[in-house]
């Protein structure tokens, strides 16, 4: 049975949309994420693509396509081009008290093969001027909760300015409140995703992101979740750019 989602229109989207997108928010319980759909592209990933079971464990659970059926109440109605439609997914911070989330944009290629020249040029420029080209990812945003509940955030613009030399310090700061067991868990999940990526040739995820979350302080929860599937391409072989990003992440999380 699909849940009924309640989401106040006044909710602060900024605590969820790390990269600065205004089309994402959590529900009142903080258990679910609602992402507004500009078209069917991303919905098709969840409904039409046969996702291998080994890969699905790294993708937050999909509950359906929802619409606001009464003020601040959302129910599964399917997609409509005539009404605002939302993906509803599990929140990677579900159950966490001191939420810490790192969002990274994955891959060395972040434009589709049929993209217009201006889009290709813009994408290549961002990859070459950031850590994407060399390391296979760039930081898209961070969200950290301190011992007193204070929140420290960075966005995608800050991430684009980071160099490879900056990243060890950035990661050390972000994971400073994680336990050794949580770090081991995150590394194991990333290595597992590496294995799955090698075993699923033929798919390239364009401009997809990875969320790494953990519960700070005395919490023990840690998660790795793949998001943003509006652009999926069929390719020959393995997505080496995505693998490069995973290898770089594992090396940086210590």
- The protein's oligomeric status is single chain
Helix content: 25-40%
CATH H-level superfamily of the largest domain = Inositol polyphosphate kinase
What is the third-level CATH name, the topology of the largest domain?
D-amino Acid Aminotransferase, Chain A, domain 1
Structural class: alpha+beta
Task: Report the uncertain regions.
Answer: 10-15
N- to C-terminal distance: 40 Å
What does this structure look like?
The structure is a single chain. This protein folds into two domains: 5-90; 99-252, 2-Layer Sandwich (D-amino Acid Aminotransferase, Chain A, domain 1), CATH 3.30.470. A hairpin with a 5-residue loop joins strand 8 (137-145) and strand 9 (151-154). The termini are far apart. The protein has helices at 41-48, 53-56, 117-129, 132-135, 156-160, 167-174, 180-199, 240-252, and strands at 5-6, 24-26, 32-36, 62-70, 73-76, 86-90, 99-106, 137-145, 151-154, 203-206, 209-215, 222-227, 231-234. The protein contains eight helices and 13 strands. The longest helix is centred in the last third of the chain and has 20 residues, at 180-199. The strands form three sheets. Strands 1-5-4-6-3-2 form a six-stranded antiparallel beta sheet, with no helix packed on it. Helices cover 30% and strands 28% of the residues. The protein has 254 residues and is of the alpha+beta class. Helix 7 packs antiparallel against helix 8.
């Amino acid at each position: 049975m699909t849940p009924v989602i309640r989401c106040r229109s006044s909710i602060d989207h900024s605590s969820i949309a790390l990269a600065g997108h205004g089309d994402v928010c959590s529900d009142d319980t903080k258990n679910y994420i609602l992402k507004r759909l500009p078209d069917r592209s991303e919905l098709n990933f969840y409904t039409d693509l046969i996702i291998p079971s080994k890969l699905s464990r790294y993708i937050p659970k999909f509950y359906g396509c929802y619409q606001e059926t009464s003020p601040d109440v959302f129910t599964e109605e399917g997609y409509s081009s005539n009404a605002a439609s939302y993906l509803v997914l599990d929140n990677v911070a579900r159950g966490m008290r001191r939420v810490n989330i790192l969002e990274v944009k994955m891959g060395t290629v972040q434009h589709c093969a049929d993209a217009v020249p201006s889009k290709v040029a813009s994408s290549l420029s961002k990859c070459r001027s950031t850590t994407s080209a060399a390391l296979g990812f760039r930081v898209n945003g961070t969200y950290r909760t301190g011992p007193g509940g204070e929140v420290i955030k960075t966005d995608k613009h800050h991430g684009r300015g980071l160099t490879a030399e900056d990243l060890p310090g950035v990661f050390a700061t972000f994971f400073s409140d994680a336990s050794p067991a949580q770090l081991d868990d995150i590394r194991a999940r990333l290595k597992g995703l590496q294995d799955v990526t090698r075993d699923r040739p033929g798919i390239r995820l364009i401009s997809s992101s990875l969320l790494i979350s953990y519960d700070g302080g005395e919490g023990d929860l840690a998660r790795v979740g793949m998001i943003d599937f509006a652009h999926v391409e069929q390719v020959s072989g393995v997505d080496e750019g995505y693998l490069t990003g995973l290898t770089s992440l594992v090396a940086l999380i210590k």
